[in-house]
Design goal:
- The complex is a heterodimer of chains A (about 500) and B (about 140).
- Chain A contains 15 helices and 16 strands.
- Chain A is an alpha/beta fold and about 500 residues long.
- Chain A has an eight-stranded mixed sheet, sandwiched between helices. Chain A has a six-stranded antiparallel β-barrel with strand order 1-2-5-4-3-6. Chain A has a two-stranded antiparallel sheet with strand order 7-9.
- The N and C termini of chain A lie far apart (about 85 Å).
- Chain B is built from five helices and four strands.
- Chain B has about 140 residues and is an alpha+beta fold.
- The longest helix of chain B has 17 residues.
- The radius of gyration of chain B is 21 Å and the shape is elongated.
- In chain B, helix 1 crosses helix 3.
- Classes of the chains: A alpha/beta (about 500), B alpha+beta (about 140).
Chain lengths: ~500, ~140
Amino acid sequence: MNNHIVENLKKEIENFKSILKVEKVGNVIEVFDGIAKISGLSDVKSSEMVTFPNAEVGVVLNLEEDSVGVIILGDYSKIKEGDQVKATGRILEVPVSDSIIGRVVNAIGTPIDGKGIIKADNPSKNSGPSAYPIEKVAPGVITRQSVSEPVATGIKAIDAIIPVGRGQRELIIGDRQTGKTALVIDAILNQKGQNMICVYVSIGQKDSKLRKLQVRLEEGGAMAYTVIVSAGASESAAFSYIAPYTGVSIAEYFMDQGKDVLIIYDDLSKHAVAYREISLLLRRPPGREAYPGDVFYLHSRLLERACRRNEKYGGGSITAFPIIETQAGDITAYIPTNVISITDGQIFLETDLFYKGIRPAVNVGSSVSRVGSNAQIKAMKKVAGTLKLDLAQYRELEAFAQFGSDLDESTKRQLERGKRSIEILKQSQYSPMKMEHQIVVFYALTKGFMDDVPVEKIKTFEAGLIDYSEANAKNFYKEIKEQKMWSEKGEEELKKVIADFKKSFI
Amino acid sequence: MATVSNNNIARAIYLAVKDKHTTEQHTVIKNVVNFLFRRRMLSKSKNILQSLNNIVNHANGVVEVKIWSKYKLSHDHKDHLEKILKKRYGDKEFIFLEYLDDKLLGGFNMEVNNELIDLTLKNKIYKLQEHLKTEYE
């Protein structure tokens, strides 16, 4: 047996012919703050991977007349002047396979969760190529179709008033500590059984925060369909810069299999700051707020990769939830306005609302979804239309009501309805609500069933109504699930069930 | 205004000293040093000289070949190499710059026009290792 192996090896060695490979090389001129200037490297492409002697990887960003600017992805302390750098001829790529689901990887796709390597190749499953370039041109017009399927976030304020469709890019914007991350965690938790893969890209966050998030997702069983890409606060700006592109490449891998993907960039303000740092180190000219001139393109090329592909091109979608952190509520700053203009709508979270106890602190007046209403199911559209109107009237009358004491009956009624609407839209963290439950609650609210329920008892009424209706209005629920709309018969059944519950409640 | 690169300066120097007599060339070089001093660019002189060297070599059809080897190469070796290099880079004059590297096991490394041709024993063993790995995994 041993002889046989040795014989085979001998044959292999004898017959082995080394193919001569010519490599493009250059030399390090200077290294500083995660950046290297390199001479030589002729014919190198922008975004091409280069390797340093200690096996560290770099990405070419600046192509100058007599030098090349490279960001170093890793430890740059051992790289010194005169070191030889080799071009690889490949754009930076991330290894992907189905087994990446449930894992935490860094910005270059290396696992950091201690669960071993991710096998990139899976030829038996024919799951496509194993390495995806992180920079890719967004799908063209011909390959796309319009947004028509909803993303159920489980958050009442969003699903009813600011609906999001599969393939949409919806910005989540707000100051620090307004519940931006909490909102997206809820959205991920609600994707259980919704045939959706989630990719959470953490940019410049504390490792402790990421760990908490991972534990929360594990507890909620959400890691079974989630991938976390992390570029921590302790890592260099280069990692923060490429992390979102790595995330979207992973998302594209699943979209290419015809799957729907939800990607969260938490957050793009830190991404822009990381890019500013790199650009200034590379001596690119600073522009407004010291950001480089192409900071708009930085985000537009990333968010354009979110799309819904038509069946002819394999279907699948990438829905993006970029997050932007504002400073003191200033949404007119450079990066917020850029991202607002790129996305298909925004969800504003306000500190004032948060401290008033309205959580999620969504300002429904300023939030908008430009394409999501097409994706809303018919039943939700019907109840949400009235809800939007009620809230708009409430906001208008609320200001007047503070001055005048003599209010006519209809105004008082509108104010009371508004108060209850606000109360219903409150939702505690980690408790996403099913679409059919939301419809029942909004139906009861907009049809006036809650008008005589005291505001402080609204939440108890809501919880009781959900349990009671689920047990007694089975036909209504069935119709919503199957036909996405109720029939007259179903409506009658629900009305009766609500009325019965109300009698027992009051 | 665009930044002046080392290459720009080297090209300007080349054009200024080209077709000039030695005394004129001396004056030009003096002016270049003054210019670099005034513009606080003396620290870049090494890189500028490197660029100038490349320009001159290019103009004269000369190619520098850096070779790292364990032992000094024989004339036969060099002649053989020159023939191979002429096939790849055309009919040019090759200047061999030899460096001895104790870390090498055998063979040699060659750098021509930012291209590295690795003919070391270590690289061959590494390739054989990769080949055997793919065959037996």
